[in-house]
Each structure stands twice: as structure tokens, then as C-alpha cells.
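User: These chains co-purify. Model them together.
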Amino acid sequence: MSKLGQAKRIIFLKTADGQLFEVDEPVAMEFEIVKSFFDENEDAADDTVVPLPNVSAEPLAGIIEFCKAHVEFRANGAAGKDEVKKFNAEYIKEKSNEQLKELILAANYLNIKEMLDFLTETIANRLKNKSVEYVRAFFGIENDFTPQEEEAVRKEYEWAFEGVDED
Amino acid sequence: MSRFPLDVLIDTFYLLPVKTLLRFRALSKSFCSLIDGPDFIKHHLEHSLSTKSRLILILKGLHLYTVDLDSLDKAIPFSEYPESIWGGTEVFGSCNGLLALSNSDQDFLLFNPSTRKLFKLPVEIIEVPNDSCIRGFVFSGFGYDHVNDDYKVVRMVRFKQDEDDNIGWFSEYEVKVFSLKTNSWRQIKKLPNYLRFMFQFYFHLLHIRGYGVYACGVLHWVLPRRPELGVGNLIILQNVEIVGSENGFE
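Assistant: Joint model of the two components:
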């Protein structure tokens, strides 16, 4: 696979819902799981399709967009600069909680540390002023307290329940 | 969303402010014990320390105030906190987000402004060594003992021959160390000679108030300059971890 005489390797990824993605090698290698696939199969053919049975197309597209931008930032020496923060803020702004969770699941499975750090920070920021009920629904946490027990736990730090977002 | 990976969830919780975590104890029984657990608390503290986040400023005017460095527009007076803290309370040390407070030389408290929990130290009396001396100034310090994973308060009391004894050359000292782990005080008997340089008239009152400064795991006190005795700018160090042993000074 050459372009103007310069070898540019493309990695093929196949999602759970059967979509095939063609990703530039440096971007695909951001995914620890893809990297170790090729580390373990050194003689894998160039057109090997890496199956990703736990990731569907939508989050994978979002992840590729994120990693592609970050690979470029690093190449331009922009890592850690305002430009990156601006991109990250813009990237996550329109994402719903559901999309965010899908991204986390996928980034966790693909094992992309930088992106995972960014996503957990985003979740922490979204949840820090939320109510207990909101967070239970967000993570699907089952409340196993009896009403009396819950009341007692809340009483211990009553002031921590002040100033919570309404929703 | 029960398939949300637990390790990612816990990593997320390490990033949350203490107030939020205290609220999230009500999520469920297992989250309550997770958040209360020593491992979680330790990781959360380590994260805060390594990222220098969640910093709190302590202000003292007529009262004591805490100000969250992330939102400098709001100072919370300590008066909203437990009643044993009032305008006369002095903050004599801080470490890992804990404050060491004193209402008198024998009434010490440890206070965690993030959880608003207060711990009163047992009263340890000052033992005057003989009838001819009276109590002089008190030097206190607070720090974390890395070796024993313990918090310690050091109290050094200087004794005077009489009210006019402002030289302090022949002063006797009583040094006692409180360990949070054992919730008890113990006395350090073998004291270094230079303790006598720690006192100079007015110096304690006007300049340093006698509080040790905790940095890099060690408590520091500034000695007054005493050119007549050949003492220039000197700082004495006290290792918090060995302050429990017989010669905890450097």
C-alpha cells in the first residue's frame, strides 16, 4: 500500500455490528488491544482484519476521531497545549450521557489510556453536583438500603446534600 | 448499565470532590463501604496530592475561614463547623488536608475541613519539672509519619526560672508527642542541647508563634538569631517518624 512512494500502512478493524474500518497505523496503534494483536502475531498479513467483538461502529468512529486528532497533536508538538483542551471540550460538548458511556466502554475494551483518562474526568465533572438518584440511574446502581438505613447514611453528612443540581 | 466496568467507575470516583463522595455513600451499601474504605481514601488523597487539586486556603481574621481554591469567591467561616472551634482557635499546622488546631496548650484538635470531622486529642498535662520553674512558651507542630502511617502532634514546652527569665539559657524543656494511631502521648526524654536556642524574648510572640512547619516529611522550626551566642540563621528539623524514638532531632 503505497502513496507517492511512501508506505502508509492501513489497519483493518471489524466491529461487532459488522462494519469494516480502515485506520491509519499510528492511530490504530493507540489501541493497546490492536497493538498487542500485532505484537503477538508478528507475521500477520497486511490485510488482516482485527475483529473487535465488543465495540460497535458508532463509538469506534468517535474514538478514531479522538485518537487521530491526538496523534496529530503529538506529532506537531502541541500535546498538553490549549489547542488540545479546546479540541477535547468541543469533542465532548455534544455527546449525551449515553454516548459518553458507550465511548468509555469501548475505550476501556480497546485499552486507550489517554482517552480513558479524559473520559473519566468528563464523567466526574458531569456527576460532581448530581443527586444520588441521578447517579444511580447513570450507572445502573441498585439501591439495597432500606429507607431507614438510607436516611441514617444521609444524616451523617447532611450538608453534603446541599447545593445539588436539579435534575 | 450494570456492565459499566467497576475499575473505570472507581477511577472516576477518585476524581470527585470529598463532598460529592460523602453524598454518594448513599448510592448503595457497597458504594458506602467502598468510599469509607481505607484503600479508597488513600488513593483519593494520593490523587489530590499528586495533581495538587482540591486545595483549601485557611484564612484567619476574627474567625477562621476555609476557601476553596477552585472557587475563591466564597469563604466558609469555621463557625459553621463544630462548636469547639471559635475565633480564638489557632491553626498550628496542616498536612494532607488535615488541620491541627489548638484552643490552649493542652486543648488540641485535629480537623478535616473536607469532611468537617473533628477529633479532640486527649488532654496531656504539662508537668513542671520542679517548684522553682514556671511554664514558658509552647512550641507545637503537626505532621505525617510515613514510616508508621501515623499523624503526630509535637508539643515542646519551655520552662522559665521566673517571670523575668527571658534569656532561656538554662531553660528546661518538656517534649511530648501524640500519635493518632495509638491515641496517646509519650514524652521524649533525651533532648538536644540546642533546644535552649529556640527561645528569645518577643521572637515567639511577634514572628513565628512557635509553630513547626511541616515540609518533605519533616517538621521545621526557625531559631531566633542570637549573635551573642554565635547562632545565626538556623532551622531545626524534626523527623516526624523518629520523633517517637529517643532522639528524634536532627
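Chain A touches chain B through 34 residues (CB under 8 Å).
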